[in-house]
Amino acid sequence: MHSLARFGLLLCALSCIASTYAKEKPKTSVADLRYGVALYHYYQQDYVAALAELMVADTRDGIQGHSDNPELIAGGVSLAFGMQHHAEAVFTQILQDERRPQSVRDAAWFYLGKLHYTRGNWSAAEQSFARVSKEFKPSLRAQMQALQLNIRIRNNQYADLALNDIDEDELRSWNPYALYNLGAAHARQGNFKTAQDFFNELADIDISDNPLRKKEQWALQDKAYTAIGYTYLSEKKYAAAIREFTKVRLDGIYANQALLGYGWAAVAQEEYDEALRPWQLLRTRSLMYPAVQESLLALPFAYEKLQAQGEAIAAYQTAEELLVRELQLIRDMRATLTAEELLTVVGSDPVPAEEANALLRGNHSNKVEGGESDAGALTAVVTDDGQNWLKLDSTSIIKTRSAYLNELFAKNTFQTAVLDLRDLLRLQSLLQQWLPKLDAYQELLLQKQNIRNRQDQMLKQDVIGQQAQKLQAARDQLAQRLAQIDSGENYIALADDDTRSLYERVEKGQQTIARMKVAGQDTAELERRIAMFGGILLWNAAQEYPARLAAQQAELKAIDQSLESIAKTRLHIEDITATSMDIQPTLARLQVLQKEVADKLSNTDTLLARQTQLLRTQVDQQLAAHEKRLNNYLAQAHLAVARLYDAELRKQPE
After folding, report:
1. Where in 267-356 does DSSP place strands (E)?
2. Domain count of the fold of the chain
């Protein structure tokens, strides 16, 4: 799909969405966060992200609270991006629901009609357009009616269409195109009078004050004047033809055809002096244009008619020189513009618009005969001053200084192919960058695995093992002590430090009393007091004994749990060391990704080579067509020179 057509489709989508949304109650906030995210990307002119958000939401449970707007946005953006199958599925789904508002159904039928029109299915397009109601948005309805007229022309069903049947108010900005298309259709059928009516109506349209519209309408009017002139030429109304040709602007894109027709109209009236003026002007222009090439032979033909044989021979010889030079230039270009060279040009970095224009202007001191700059010289650059069909901002386009390739480079299909190639080159670059990254990541994982193996081995053999042994010994010692305390009900063993210290003093006192008793001293009072103090200490210790024993047993249990955890950790380390269970799956996935990237890179390389060759074929065919035409004119010039010399020789006496 051409870039301007895509841009028009998106504008239509936005208009339909805006008109449908305007009928709903204004919202101060979005009812669904996902729709809000999609709208954010949408108004940031990041349409790919907006479409992706809508498609992700659709795979879940849809977007609630915003009527049909999300679907219309998804369908419109898909259509503008050339995703025709997805857009068709969206609009068909809308039409299957009879509860949808008429404005939404109109938009869906309109989009489906445009889809069929784009695919060349005229019957289906007409049927879809016929389902659109009269209440459909006027600006879009105007475009639809223009497309319906084109369908009638393609189906040869326009003969009954008179000028009065064309409603300028309904067709709006599409009216000039409709008038020209109908005029051209009648001219092709030989209905010159009717064709002239349509062309004259187009020529009489007031030029808009809008600079962009003015330039476009001037071009259309020039085209109309040129077409009218050739219809008069076909009817042998030569004076009328000249009158129309003179209305064409000399700096317009149709000036060459008008100048050529002017000359032939004058020749038809045997006004050969009059024919010389436009043809002499034509000869100074770039030879890439067929009209200019034809003028090289038409000019000496006029000289012949004026009996100026010397001027005719000189003009033919000049034509030969110019044609030979141009032929060599084209052959050099065909040899130079290989697929590799084209890919290098297409893949180069964009240059600023001013710098690009300077490069394309080239060296103005290099002039050919007649003052024309060397427009055939090969210079091609990529610049960012093209119009993006989605964002209305700049996009990369390729320009050339070569007049022989300007015609091809100006085509949307060629520029689209260039953009596709640039996208493929970016994809190739991205994949080429990922391959070494994946290799490096794999190497890092392998190094990590080796380091882990060494560390795990050290941990298992040294640190963890030693810690486990120490903890086990402490555990066994504590368990034995608790068993002894519990079996002997040794309350003092679990008492606090102060109680144990006091009880140790009681025990020392008992030993002292025993020695005193052996020495024959009276120790009765001391024995009573020491027994009382010891009993108090034992009683206090006995009161705290159960709680302290439970705490010690809990500590023992905690140690057992720690030992169990250490044992599990050691087993886990052994498993990791043996199988690398957390690295091996990643390595396996990495190998899959490496193969996928390598396969995609291979496919991209193949597609790049194929698309580059197709682009090169277009360029070569364009140049070959010029070469063939120039060879034909060169042969005619050779024959004309030979004929004139032969005629002069025959005049000489033997």
Report:
1. none
2. 2
What pLDDT, in 10s, does the model give residues 512-541? 888 888 888 887 888 888 888 878 877 887
Residue 454 tokens, joined:
């060494």
Place of tokens 């206090």: 540
Indicate whether this model's pTM tops 0.70.
Answer: no
Tell me which of 216-220, 280-284, 360-364, 556-560 is least confident: 360-364
Domain interval for residue 16? 1-157
Structure tokens at 169: 């108010």
> Which residues, in sequence order, are CB contacts of 100 under 8 Å at separation 6+?
68, 94, 108
Contacts of 187 (CB under 8 A, 6+ apart): 195, 227, 230, 231
- Cα–Cα distance for residue pair 114/95, rounded to 1 Å: 15
Could you tell me the two tokens for 540? 């206090």
CATH value at residue 31 = 1.25.40.10
Residue 602 belongs to a domain? no
Mean confidence (pLDDT) of the chain: 78
Domain boundary residue among 157, 176, 202? 157
17 falls within a domain? yes
Instruction: Return the half-sphere exposure (C-beta side, CA atoms, 13 A cut-off) of residue 293.
Output: 23
* Whether the Cβ atoms of residue 334 and residue 623 lie closer than 8 Å to each other: yes
**CB within 8 A of 261, min separation 6: which ones?**
226, 229, 230, 233, 241, 245
The secondary structure of 535-547, three-state, reads HHHHHHHHHHHHH
pLDDT category of residue 215 using cuts at 50, 70 and 90: confident
Residue 75 domain flag: yes
Last residue of a domain, one of 579, 606, 628: 579
Sequence-distant (≥ 6) Cβ neighbours of residue 597 within 8 angstroms? 431, 434, 435, 438
19 domain residue, yes or no: yes
